[in-house]
Amino acid sequence: MKKTGWIILGIIVVLVLWVFSGYNGMVGEQEKATTELSNMQAQYQRRADMMPQLAKIVKAYAKHEKETFEEVTKARASVGQVKLDVNNLTEASMKQYAAAQGELSNAFSKLMLVAERYPELKASENFKALQIQEEGTENRISEARRKYNEAVQSYNQTVRKMPNAIIAGIFNFNVMPKFEAAAGAEKAPDLDI
After folding, report:
1. Global pTM value
2. Residue 157: which H helix or E strand, with range?
3. Alpha-carbon distances, residue 145 vs 53, 62, 180 (angstroms)
4. Can you tell me the distance from the alpha carbon of 162 to that of 151, in angstroms, rounded to the nearest whole number?
5. For the chain, what is the radius of gyration of the CA atoms?
6. Cα-based angle 63, 66, 70 (whole degrees, multiple of 5)
7. Number of C-alpha atoms within 13 angstroms, CB side, residue 151?
8. How many CB atoms are closer than 10 A to CB 1?
């Protein structure tokens, strides 16, 4: 083969290796982000699973707080209906998910306010244990959201920077949405019960 043929072959090999490397890097970043999303959803599920136990304990002490219990049940049900598809994440689906989680947080806050009215409930060992678990779960949720957003930031930077943007466009690697607080989350929840 002539010298020119070797040069062309060398360029083709370098380009193929560059495409493979860029593609594999984007797949790795995308997998990291979707794994963090799944971890975040698992923590939200943990919180949703604890709600019936908390409500049951509070209900045993505060039988006339029916409206609060109905709100907790409704919020938990709405959380279960909103699913995130890691293969089709959109800002709208993330906002819908965040809003449903916000409703559950508000319902939980109202449940805790009810609990404050009953000293014998606050002294219950079961209630104390669940309250500690809930506090730990909220911390885990916060950490999971942070990790997800960091993974998405890394992925988004990878697919948007040149020359990876070319490979991302060819293989349909799209920017992923970050998890943002629901609208109005900066305001304290209305706990008028």
Report:
1. 0.72
2. helix 125-160
3. 25, 34, 9
4. 19
5. 24
6. 135
7. 21
8. 7
Half-sphere exposure for 160 (CA within 13 Å, toward CB): 8
The rounded Cα 82 to chain-centroid distance in angstroms is 12
Which of 3.40.50.1010, 3.10.105.10, 1.20.1440.20, 3.40.190.10 would CATH assign to domain 12-170? Answer: 1.20.1440.20
Domain boundaries, the chain: 12-170
Q: Tens digit of pLDDT for each residue in 14-44?
A: 999 999 999 999 999 999 999 999 899 888 8
Cα 74 off chain centre by: 20
> What's the CA gap between 26 and 171, in Å, rounded?
10
pLDDT tens string 119-173: 777 677 777 788 888 888 888 988 999 999 999 999 999 999 999 999 999 999 9
Alpha carbons 186 and 46: distance in angstroms, whole number: 24
C-alpha separations of 165 from 1, 109, 141, 143, 169 in Å: 34, 44, 32, 30, 6
Burial of 87 (0-12, 13-18, 19+ CB in 10 A): exposed
Per DSSP, 2 falls in state -
Residue 133 has which token pair?
């678990």
